[in-house]
Amino acid sequence: TVMDVDQNLSTNDRSKIADGHTTAFVDSTFFSVFSFNLLAGDVKKPFPDIQSVVVTKSTAEKFFGSSQALGKKPVFRGTPFIITGILANFPANSSLHKRSYMENCVY
């Protein structure tokens, strides 16, 4: 199950924002059902806790430049989350265009 909401994911100082429909809330089986290219993180347990977020490579680069994004803490609706996975960017012809994924128990 995928739930889509309009929201803001940002750096802690809000200097970089991914706004609009950029986050999908997914159930715990999402990454085992689909074969996404997870560049960093644990595909078997992408959300080790309720405040975990998996982002695309382009989102990680937008927020944190060339530094390692895994373990960094962007903010979602005023709450810090920990980046626990980095996904390869989706191809242009993909029907998936979300930049971040959180477990649906957050919403």
Walk me through what this model shows.
The chain is mainly beta and 107 residues long. 11% of the residues lie in helices and 39% in strands. It contains two helices and eight strands, in the order ββαββαββββ. It has an eight-stranded mixed β-sheet with strand order 3-7-4-8-2-1-5-6. Residues 1-6 have low confidence and may be disordered.
Question: Keywords for this structure?
Answer:
single chain; 107 residues; mainly beta; eight-stranded mixed beta sheet; 2 helices; 8 strands; 11% helix; globular
Kindly name the structural category. mainly beta
Large-scale geometry:
globular
In percent terms, what proportion of residues is strand?
Answer: 35-45%
Please provide the count of β strands: 8
Oligomerization: single chain
Strand order of the largest sheet: 3-7-4-8-2-1-5-6
Main pleated sheet: 8 strands, mixed
Uncertain ranges? 1-6
The number of helices is 2
Rg, rounded, reads 12 Å
Report mean pLDDT, rounded to a whole number. Answer: 82
Distance between the termini: 13 Å
Order of helices and strands: EEHEEHEEEE
Helix content: 10-25%
Summarize the structure.
The chain is mainly beta and 107 residues long. The chain contains 2 helices and 8 strands.
Q: Secondary structure elements and their pairing?
A:
Blueprint (H helix, E strand, L loop, with lengths): L1 E9 L6 E10 L3 H4 L4 E4 L10 E5 H8 L10 E2 L2 E2 L1 E6 L12 E4 L4
Parallel strand pairs: 2-8, 4-7
Antiparallel strand pairs: 1-2, 1-5, 3-7, 4-8, 5-6
